[in-house]
Specification:
- This protein is of the alpha+beta class.
- Strands 1, 2, 3, 4, 5, 6, 7, 8, 9, 10, 11, 12 and 13 form a 13-stranded antiparallel sheet that branches.
- The chain is globular and about 45 Å long.
- It starts with a helix and ends in a 15-residue tail after the last strand.
- The N terminus and C terminus are likely disordered.
């Protein structure tokens, strides 16, 4: 019973954290998000003190369908530091660091240093996905700036997206904060189109599982406090 209550509190805390940008951003901010495939990633003002987590790490496990597509199309991934590829090539890790830019900005994004390079053997093209953002509004998403063979193409493209219900289904308490276990993120149509046009390869199936994200949100060392939820007498 106690563990159930603790898990419920953790889920509420996580929901509160994910709701911060909706409450603090300017009115109508979510409605003003661009609807075309080019989403600007110009610098946005930070929301003071608004963190999902100031410390921790995140692990991405690439989905089986995406891995099969990569093998079929001759595509390999290379991590851009501080991202680190797993030894088996089936995923990568990325730190959540207490550095400038890792808090939520007014566009509801967390900045992650590092990124990925997508190498296509057949065309010889390299797509670089950097800078990296995890979005919490208007929906949970992984987005990145896009360069092809070192030439900047787009400031921000949503590569994969999820839903709040799927993300929060995996929320669990940890000894130092909370963890979201294997939140699924699905390939967007704009990402599929981009890869097909840039490389001439068959695109990954839009809506297929890009992979799962498992972030560990830590609050140690402890100058920052975890999100709070209302208490009732």
């Amino acid at each position: 019973m106690r563990m159930h209550a603790l898990r419920r509190l953790t889920v509420l805390a996580a929901v509160a954290a994910l709701s911060v940008p909706l409450a603090l951003a300017s009115p109508g901010a979510a409605a003003q998000q661009p609807t075309n495939t080019t989403r600007t990633a110009a610098a946005a003002e930070p929301l003071p003190g608004a963190y999902i987590s100031p410390w921790g790490d995140a692990q991405v496990e690439i989905g089986d369908e995406t891995l099969a597509w990569m093998e079929r199309e001759g595509i390999t991934l290379e991590a851009i530091s501080p991202f680190v590829m797993d030894a088996d090539g089936r995923g990568f890790s990325m730190p959540i660091g207490s550095t400038a830019g890792d808090g939520l900005d007014s566009k509801g994004r967390i900045f992650y240093p590092g990124g990925l390079k997508v190498h296509h053997q057949g065309s010889g093209k390299t797509i670089t996905l950097k800078s990296t953002f995890i979005r919490v509004m208007p929906t949970p998403a992984y987005s990145a700036g896009v360069s092809i063979d070192g030439k900047a193409l787009l400031e921000e493209v949503v590569i994969a997206e999820s839903t709040y219900s799927e993300v929060m289904a995996g929320a669990r308490p940890s000894t130092t904060g909370f963890r979201i276990n294997k939140a699924p993120f699905y390939v967007t149509q704009e990402a599929a189109n981009l890869i097909a046009v840039a490389t001439g390869a068959t695109a990954p199936r839009a809506g297929s599982l890009f992979g799962t994200l498992t972030p560990n949100f830590d609050y140690v060392p402890g100058t920052a406090k975890p999100p709070t939820v209302p208490t009732f007498p």
